[in-house]
Design a protein that fits this description.
The protein is of the alpha/beta class and about 575 residues long. The chain is built from 14 helices and 25 strands. The longest helix is centred in the first third of the chain and has 16 residues. Bound molecules: adenosine-5'-triphosphate and magnesium ion. The site of adenosine-5'-triphosphate has 14 residues, from helix 3 and strand 8. Adenosine-5'-triphosphate (ATP) binds next to helix 3 and strand 8.
Length: about 575
């Protein structure tokens, strides 16, 4: 079957993709003794983002589907950018997404000795040499895709000299940049990566695992393929930009292998989301320049940011599933992710009432000190979630937007003389509007119909609106953070001329300091998800204190954004 056909099929099939077909064929041909072994190979130089989630789901999911194994391997070949904090966060995020590498945790640095020995072997075989030219000259000599490169004057240096120099590089005799070890392949190759690529550079830097043992470090391209080989990886799944590196990985492994076994690299397209940027370098810049509050700022596309925002692992896995695995580059609408989380939370989130912009209502015919407990449904999508009691009192808050003094014709919520239903409570009618010295509405006076307890019409008369409310005396105070997209343009990485920082959405965070939520949320724990009825999905933030809760809005109940944009 051609690749195109295979890919079309993935669009309709939920669980099969072209990579699964390749794996199936390999199994049918008896390759690798029936083993399927994949790996997820992050570089610990930043936090994982939702793009990585696609790779994680594919790597672990493929292994799972074929009864195989998936390793976690940290590609920690560049000590200047790597950090234990990143290692820890990556492990936490993978587990949170629902995957498990069991006892198969590896680091490229576990293989530094073997990689070094292999480099010595290549030198001895005349397949690697020490180049003492400055870096910019080496890169100039690379040529262009259409013009072959120029051979280095050091290319034919005797083996003994190369061995001695490499030994001295390792012993720390030279400063950074003094020389490099290069593979001797082909300076005229049409593939630029085959033009005597760098294998080792000198870097006097402490490594997060090997400490000061090494002052030479393998290049990613020299380490990656061999690590796959050392770990017995059968299918090495990676994003399309590595396709062009594949011949080099194969070349190195061919020099190393003593059997037929070879890891098979298969490339797939990256996940790109609209209004989102996934470059780790730029995400780091946002953090370092304090344009966001940290890697886990709820506006970040990092898994820790999405988690803190209230996104669930199931919603992220559902997005990846929906997008599918192909070789076609494209942009996925971020609304699809928002849709996925709404679908998940609709099924699972506890409902509560919370008022974000409070307007006080005094129910003048309600007994002054009475607190009445009214029954409310916890989740209409899940009967087993049961019910809870919500306190009703003479003074309550409603949403400021739910009242208009001079309403247009189609405004069905509260206005003078109008009757509405208070959810789970009573029918109320607005009798008075009280204004302060600035003419601002400070409170409303209403009367209630005692016969409408539970929000049921006593005589069949209808009201056009049902409002949420919170008791003004029996409640929990909360700070609520309303988030919007971090970037105001669809493709913030699209125009390389524009500084991405200028594309930040100035309204991506809106903090409401005085909100009220029903007492039920008192015992909530960070990351607990709630639907505030009519207002969206919210989750409790880790910064919550006993005296004041902090909620993050995950998403609104409907996609308001596309309406704003006139889509
Ligand atoms: P960089 O190389 O710039 O540091 P990276 O995003 O490639 O960033 P890695 O830690 O090397 O980071 O990525 C680990 C794995 O995740 C790689 O196999 C990579 O192909 C995959 N990956 C990274 N970004 C995406 C994405 N947007 N969609 C799908 N897979 C991705
Ligand atoms: Mg990478």
């Amino acid at each position: 079957m051609s690749e195109k056909n295979t890919e079309n099929k993935t669009a309709v099939s939920k669980t099969r993709n072209f990579i699964h077909e390749i794996v199936e064929n390999d199994l049918a041909e008896g390759k690798n003794g029936g083993r399927v072994h994949t790996r997820f190979p992050p570089e610990p130089n930043g936090y994982l983002h939702i793009g990585h989630a696609k790779a994680i789901c594919l790597d672990f999911g493929t292994a799972e589907k074929f009864g195989g194994k998936c390793n976690l391997r940290f590609d920690d070949t560049n000590p200047s950018k790597e950090d234990q904090e990143y290692v820890d966060s990556i492990m936490e995020d993978i587990k949170w997404l629902g995957f498990d590498w069991e006892d198969r945790l590896y680091y490229a640095s576990d293989f530094f000795d073997r990689l070094y020995e292999f480099a010595v072997k290549l030198i001895k075989e005349g397949k690697a040499y020490i180049d003492e030219q400055p870096a910019d000259l080496i890169s100039q000599q690379r040529g262009t895709p259409t013009r072959p490169g120029t051979e280095s004057p050091y290319r034919n240096r005797p083996v003994e000299e190369n061995l001695d120099m490499f030994e001295r590089m390792k012993a720390g005799e030279f400063p950074n940049g003094h020389c490099v070890l290069r593979a001797k392949i082909d300076m005229a190759s049409p593939n630029m990566h085959m033009r005597d690529p760098l294998m080792y550079r000198i870097m006097h830097a402490e490594h997060h695992r090997t400490g000061n043992k090494w002052c030479i470090y393998p290049m990613y391209d020299y380490a990656h393929g061999q690590c796959d080989y050392f770990e017995g990886i059968t299918h090495s799944l990676c994003t399309l930009e590595f396709e062009i590196h594949r011949p080099l990985y194969n070349w190195f492994v061919d020099q190393l292998a003593d059997s037929d076994y070879r890891p098979r690299q298969i490339e797939f397209s990256r996940l790109n989301l609209s209004y989102t940027m996934m470059s780790k370098r730029k995400l780091l810049q946002l953090v370092e320049e304090k344009l966001v509050s940290g890697w886990d700022d709820p506006r970040m596309p990092t898994l820790s940011g999405l988690r803190r925002r209230g996104f669930t692992p199931a919603s992220i896995r559902a997005l990846v599933e929906k997008v599918g695995i192909t070789k076609t580059e494209g942009m996925v609408d971020v609304a699809l992710l928002e849709h996925a989380v709404r679908e998940d939370l609709n099924k699972t989130a506890q409902r509560v009432m919370g008022v974000l912009n409070p307007l006080k209502v005094v129910i003048t015919n309600y007994p002054e000190t009475q607190v009445e407990m009214l029954e409310a449904v916890n989740n209409p999508e899940d009967e087993s979630a049961g019910t809870r009691e919500v306190p009703f009192t003479r003074e309550i808050y409603i949403e400021r937007d739910d009242f208009m003094e001079d309403p247009p014709r189609k405004f069905f919520r509260l206005s003078p003389g109008k009757e509405v239903r208070l959810r789970y409570a009573y029918f109320v009618t607005c009798t008075d509007v009280v204004t302060d010295e600035n003419g601002e509405i400070s409170e409303l006076h209403c009367t209630y119909d005692p016969e409408s307890r539970g929000g049921n019409s006593p005589d069949g008369r209808k009201v056009k609106a049902t409002l949420h409310w919170v008791s003004a005396t029996e409640n929990v105070e909360a700070k609520v953070r309303l988030y919007d997209r971090l970037f105001s343009v669809e493709d913030p990485s699209g125009d390389k001329e524009v500084d991405f920082r200028e594309l930040l959405n100035p309204d991506s965070l809106n903090v409401l300091d005085k909100c009220y939520v029903e007492p039920f949320v008192k015992n909530a724990k960070p990351l607990d998800n709630f639907q505030f009825e009519r207002m969206g999905y919210f989750n409790l933030d880790k910064e919550s204190g006993d005296s004041k809760l902090v909620f993050n809005r995950t998403v609104t109940l409907r996609d308001n954004w596309s309406k704003h944009k006139g889509k």
